[in-house]
Structures are given as structure tokens and as C-alpha cells.
Design goal:
5-stranded antiparallel beta sheet, 5 strands
Length: 287
């Protein structure tokens, strides 16, 4: 009898436990459903509030702008044009990159030609050219031939006559490439093409800006000629960059500009003649 009673009570307790487990599961599921529903509701409410705010702001902008536009107070064409101009001012100019085509020809004629060194010299020359104009001082030019120096002096003189000053600030050279290599009788010219940006503006004696801008960058391109000469003194005295390339002993023409000896008499050409590369032209490229 006692055993039967104990078994009956155990069965009751087990059934009760099962019931409580089921109830607990139901409560957990119900809670999860409620939380999920609340979360979705919050997200929907957030999206609705965002749409209302966006629509309200957009509507306000349209109301604010529409009136002046209709009256002609806002020039959308001018705004778009200004936006395009500012975008172009931030975009560096592209250069004529023919280095891979021209450099092998130059090396064949001048085996000792150091391209990396000449490229850096060219960049320094352009920077000194712009700095010389800014500082009204042609003496700070580096590696420049007489023609470039005289050109800078002329620019400075014209500015002084007009009581103006030209400024090139925050100069940055983006790219430097060989554009062309031209070899004729007695003359060999390498033309570099450079892409550069700076703030370019002109001021009067009171410092007022006449042209250009201190805040808008200017993108430009420059062509710089590097010339090979046989004797720098002869070139400078004659005022010509085209001189004969001949052997100083027998007078025979040199078959190769980079030759170290005459192929006719064997005379050492490099030891007798002063060979030099000189920059003789800096010109802003204008399409």
C-alpha cells in the first residue's frame, strides 16, 4: 500500500514538473515574440521618423531655393560651371609620355646619359624658374642657360613696368616625361613635358589681387628643352644653339654624337671638347 502511494505521488510530481517545463517554454517563446515585435516596431518607427525628417528637410530646401530660382536670383548654370571649373582645377594635366620610345634613342647616341638625374634637374629648373619670377630675381635660377635667364629678366621687367607682381605658391610637379628627341646637324634637343600645379595670381603695389586666385589651384603644363652642345663658350658667344659636331683634329664629322673618339683619326673627342647639356627654353604649354 505504501509503495503504491509513493508511486502515485511520484507520478503526480513528474506530471507537475512537465507542466511547469511546458509553461516555462511557452513563457520564453512568448517573450521572444514580444521582443521581436517590439524591435520591428522600433525599426519601423525609426524609418518613418527618418523619412519624415528627410522629407521635411528636402521640402524646406526646395521651398528655400525654388523662389530665388524662379526669380532668377540663383544662377544654376553659373553654379554648375563653377563646380566644373573647380573640379578641373583639382585634376592634374596629362603629359605626352613618350619616354619609353625616346629614351632608347637617346641612350644609343649618349650611352652615359643619366635619365633619372636629368629628370630631377629638369624639375628643379622649372621650380627655380617660377620662384625667380615670384621673387623678381633671375639670379636664383638653377641650371639655366642664358636664353632662359634673359626670358625671366624680360618677364620681371614687364611686371615692374606695370607695377605688378606675379606669384606662384605651393608649387607641386606631378609628372615629368620626355616628349620628344630631335637630332639634326649639329643640334640635339630633348624636350621634357611637365605637369604642375600651383596658386597663380598677380597683385598690384598695394597687394590687391588683379588676376588669379590665392585659393583656387591652377593646373598647367610646361615644355622644357635640354640641348646638347659641343662647346658651351662657342654657343654662348655665337648666340646659336646649332653648331657643327666635328673632330677638332681632322675636322671629320662625328658619326655618333656620343662618340668618345673620331672614327677617322682616332683622336679623343671627349678629352678635347667640352660637352654639356644645357637648358635653353621653358615654355608654358597652351592648347
Amino acid at each position: 500500500m505504501l509503495l503504491e502511494t509513493t508511486l502515485a505521488m511520484g507520478t503526480v510530481f513528474a506530471a507537475g514538473a512537465i507542466v511547469w517545463v511546458v509553461v516555462g517554454l511557452v513563457v520564453v517563446v512568448a517573450a521572444a515574440v514580444i521582443v521581436s515585435s517590439v524591435t520591428r516596431g522600433l525599426k519601423r518607427a525609426k524609418r518613418k521618423i527618418h523619412r519624415e525628417i528627410t522629407n521635411s528637410v528636402t521640402s524646406q530646401i526646395i521651398k528655400t531655393v525654388a523662389g530665388p530660382m524662379n526669380r532668377g536670383d540663383i544662377n544654376m548654370s553659373g553654379i554648375m560651371k563653377q563646380a566644373v571649373t573647380e573640379s578641373m582645377e583639382e585634376q592634374p594635366k596629362s603629359v605626352s609620355g613618350a619616354t619609353s620610345l625616346m629614351l632608347p634613342r637617346i641612350i644609343r647616341d649618349f650611352p652615359d646619359f643619366e635619365y633619372d638625374e636629368m629628370r630631377e634637374r629638369t624639375k628643379l629648373l622649372l621650380k627655380s624658374y617660377l620662384d625667380a619670377i615670384t621673387q623678381n630675381n633671375a639670379d636664383i635660377l638653377t641650371d639655366a642657360g642664358d636664353e632662359i635667364k634673359q626670358n625671366v629678366r624680360n618677364i620681371i621687367a614687364d611686371l615692374e613696368n606695370n607695377r605688378q607682381s606675379r606669384h606662384f605658391d605651393s608649387i607641386k610637379i606631378h609628372q615629368t616625361e620626355i616628349k620628344n628627341y630631335n637630332k639634326t646637324a649639329g643640334r640635339c634637343v630633348i624636350t621634357f613635358d611637365l605637369s604642375v600645379e600651383y596658386y597663380d595670381y598677380t597683385t598690384d603695389t598695394a597687394g590687391n589681387i588683379i588676376t588669379g586666385s590665392k585659393t583656387s589651384k591652377h593646373q598647367s603644363r610646361y615644355n622644357i628643352d635640354l640641348i646638347y652642345v659641343q662647346d658651351r663658350e662657342i654657343v654662348e658667344q655665337s648666340g646659336s644653339n646649332a653648331i657643327g659636331i666635328n673632330c677638332p683634329n681632322c675636322g671629320a664629322p662625328l658619326s655618333m654624337l656620343g662618340a668618345k673618339t673620331c672614327s677617322y683619326c682616332g683622336t679623343g673627342v671627349v678629352d678635347i671638347n667640352l660637352r654639356a647639356w644645357t637648358y635653353n627654353r621653358v615654355k608654358e604649354f597652351v592648347r
